Structure to design on (547 residues):
């Protein structure tokens, strides 16, 4: 591995100038390395951080990458790391025209890393350097404690998705603490959600009303807002006073709670384990935004490498070569999901719609199909709107907001399913739906969605750790429950209790024989009955009971 030569660096600097002229924003300093094709394959399984701490799963992923490369030799294009400065890796045999395309793609990634608000907590640190320090710290601990370090890593990674990423992000954007901010916190976080238990739609209306008061009344916006609150909820002021004006703590970060309150980890002989758990937690939080923005991140980079490459005079004569490579990356599959392709097309669609003023109330209120098709206010605000989308959304918000029927129809998208042809014993694929709602749901179902688990502090004090899974329509993966609770029990030093929801029965509407639906049933919606269950891990033994 070595830095790119001066010729390739001049190409990269030229790409930076053109990218900035188009509106992308990123730091001046970047590092680019060239590696062999095989090494580039091995960088990706290493979670794209060469300095990441050593762990057997990482080594296994590298071996799998080698195996895939030997069976199906491929030419991966790049790997880019969100560090300060940003680091990217390239094949050592790329021609100049291909480097131009790849450099634009990488600059799209760097712009996304350094401007999307879900990455805010990564902007001030050099994670590659921190990862190297963590790697050395674990190596030192291994020399002192042997294989127990790997056991602790294993147990900590069992709960590394139980971190409060959104709490971390909200703290970064929370305004300076004043009496007004505490009152708002208590109103929105406790009064509306826990006491009044408002529906999501009504909660959003309250947020919108507050924003309108801020815009119209400026610094007096909060007072105007709470005057209306007092008329609607006369009891609010007294309840806020009794609350001590302090928002109730939300124990949503299981890893941090274990670090802070585990008597086992706080014993003098076990304090070295805290460093291990903290390293795993820190690494998990670093990668949370990358997992949550895969479609947007790859789509944004693909949009820019295509947009900027086609304007670049340095590619003359290589348009056909580019078309081949670009089609391999951004082609839309008929079955399945390509984040590069879907994200790029959505960005093009958003830009065209914003240019015509179609995100205005005037357009959204139209019901006539012909008038919607002809609507064009020629606002020219498409590129500006794109940058706002890039800055403020993640994959869930991106897909939920912009996957609409017009887009699905324009790109002839559909949801596919399969059924068994019993006469030939083969699976047949068929078009299940062309509805935008169902296509959107298919995309949302494939997004990263960690379980919402909190700590019941009242029942945890001085004994077993009580975890509550807030059911959101998706059950926990049952085969993972035992190992996860086993690891948490070890680190907590006491029994662990988990309350969750699981399927009790599955039936199809209209069945009169009382039989549960089998795998051969293919038509009709399912009636699913959910049961609340409690798992208890004590002395490495798991018990399950229906509550």
């Amino acid at each position: 591995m070595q830095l790119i030569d001066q010729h390739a660096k001049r190409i990269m600097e030229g790409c930076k100038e053109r990218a900035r002229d188009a509106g992308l924003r990123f730091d001046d300093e970047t590092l680019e390395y060239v590696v062999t094709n095989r090494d580039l394959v091995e960088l990706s399984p290493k979670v794209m951080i060469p300095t990441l701490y050593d762990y057997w799963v990482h080594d296994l992923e590298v071996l799998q990458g080698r195996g895939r490369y030997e069976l199906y030799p491929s030419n991966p294009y790049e790997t880019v790391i969100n560090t300060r400065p940003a680091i990217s890796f390239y094949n050592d045999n790329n021609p100049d025209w291909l480097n131009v395309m790849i450099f634009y793609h990488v600059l799209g990634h760097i712009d996304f890393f350094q401007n999307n608000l879900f990455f805010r907590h990564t902007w001030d640190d050099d994670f590659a350097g921190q990862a190297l320090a963590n790697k050395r710290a674990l190596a030192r601990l291994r020399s002192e404690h042997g294989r127990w370090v790997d056991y602790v890593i294993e147990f900590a990674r069992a709960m590394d998705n139980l971190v409060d990423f959104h709490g971390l992000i909200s703290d970064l954007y929370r305004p300076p603490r004043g009496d007004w901010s505490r009152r708002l916190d208590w109103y929105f976080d406790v009064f509306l959600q826990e006491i009044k238990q408002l529906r999501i739609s009504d909660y959003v209306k309250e947020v919108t009303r507050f924003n309108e008061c801020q815009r119209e009344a400026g610094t007096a916006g909060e007072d105007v807002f709470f005057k209306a609150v007092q008329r609607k909820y006369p009891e609010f002021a007294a309840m806020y006073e009794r609350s001590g004006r302090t928002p109730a703590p939300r124990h949503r970060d299981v890893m941090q709670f274990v670090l802070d309150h585990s008597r086992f980890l706080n014993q003098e002989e076990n304090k070295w384990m805290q460093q291990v758990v903290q390293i795993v937690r820190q690494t998990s939080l670093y990668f949370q935004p990358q997992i949550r923005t895969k479609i947007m991140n790859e789509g944004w980079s693909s949009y820019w490498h295509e947009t900027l490459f086609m304007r670049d005079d340095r590619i003359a004569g290589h348009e056909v070569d580019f078309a081949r490579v670009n089609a391999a990356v951004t082609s839309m599959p008929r079955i399945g999901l390509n984040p590069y392709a879907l994200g790029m097309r959505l960005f093009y669609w958003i830009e065209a719609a914003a240019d015509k003023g179609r995100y205005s109330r005037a357009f959204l209120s139209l019901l006539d199909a012909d008038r919607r098709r002809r609507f064009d206010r020629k606002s020219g605000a498409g590129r500006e709107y794109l940058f706002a989308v890039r800055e403020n959304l993640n994959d869930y918000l991106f897909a939920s907001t912009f996957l609409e029927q017009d887009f699905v129809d324009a790109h002839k998208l559909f949801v596919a399913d399969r059924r068994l042809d019993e006469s030939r014993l083969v699976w047949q694929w068929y078009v299940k739906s062309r509805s935008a709602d169902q296509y959107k749901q298919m995309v949302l179902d494939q997004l990263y969605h960690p379980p919402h688990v909190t700590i019941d502090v009242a029942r945890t004090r001085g004994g077993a750790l009580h975890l509550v899974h807030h059911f959101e329509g998706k059950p926990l993966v049952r085969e993972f429950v035992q190992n996860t609770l086993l690891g948490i029990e070890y680190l907590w030093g006491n029994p662990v209790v988990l309350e969750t929801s699981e399927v009790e029965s599955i039936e199809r509407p209209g069945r009169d024989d009382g039989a549960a639906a089998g795998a051969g049933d293919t038509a009709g919606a399912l009636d699913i009955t959910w049961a609340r269950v409690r798992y208890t891990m004590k002395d490495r033994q798991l018990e399950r009971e229906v509550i």
The chain has a mean pLDDT of 84. The longest strand covers residues 496-507.
